[in-house]
Amino acid sequence: MSTESSADARLDVTYGVDDYQDQGGETLYKGFFTFERRHYRYRRFDGGWSDTVDREVHVRPDAVGVLLYDPKRDVVVLVEQIRAGIVARLAHGQSAHSPWLLEPVAGLIDRDETPEEVARREAEEEANCKVTELIPLYRYYTSPGASCEQFYLFCALVDSAPLGGIHGLEEENEDIRVRTFSFTDISEMMKNGRIDNAMALISLQWLAAERSSLRARS
Q: Which pLDDT tens digit goes with each residue over 22-43?
């Protein structure tokens, strides 16, 4: 059988955790986040094994995002804060609208917390908003080529009337402004690039599809 035929025969094969070999690694840096160099081999689609691959990886806990939406007023609640990744981007001469991003509430999962508990905690810390009902949206990898982080995304139905102001944990140097927007304004901001991060875009695209049913049930 030719090499091409062998490869074609494996197009429907599903690979899993038994089809790679972990060959260890070392910690390059450990601070607020950790960076490692991992070594591994993997089964190729032609059935053979790769050479050893060396890759640097950003090791961080899983995280949660929660989009706050008021269906009665058709209002989206987002938080605005400066982001170190965009500061670094600008420092390297790359373009960005601003190092301040508009995002859903978000936070990292501690070892003894569930994603739902984190969603409620972060909503209170970042937006002074108590959440009871959470709608699970998606679970996804944020940047699997360079990070082990998995993200849990929720929507919470809230009363936006009392929300606003500046919040966040002082000991973590957080300076978070809570902002409310009509869904019409949000749609325009998505089109013109003012909202430009994956967490916001994914959750808001979901909201665009589900908004009518959410409003009807409210």
A: 999 999 999 989 999 999 999 9
Residues 6+ apart with CB under 8 A from 101: 80, 81, 83, 86, 196, 197, 200
Report which of 185, 201, 62, 78 is spatially closest to residue 129, judged by C-alpha positions: 78
How far apart CA 134 and CA 25 sit, in angstroms, is 38
Average pLDDT over residues 109-134: 93
Return the residue matching tokens 């670094």: 88
Q: How far apart are CA 71 and CA 180, in angstroms?
A: 13
Decide the pairing of beta strands 63-70 and 150-157.
parallel
Say if strands 150-157 and 34-42 run parallel, antiparallel, or are unpaired: unpaired
CB-CB contact of 164 with 65 (8 Å): no
| Beta strand residue intervals within 83-133, DSSP E | 100-103, 105-108
**Annotated catalytic residue, options 4, 170, 171, 172:** 172
Q: What is the DSSP letter of 194?
A: S
Q: Is 172 marked active-site?
A: yes
Residue 204 tokens, joined? 């808001």
CB 140 within 8 A of CB 151: yes
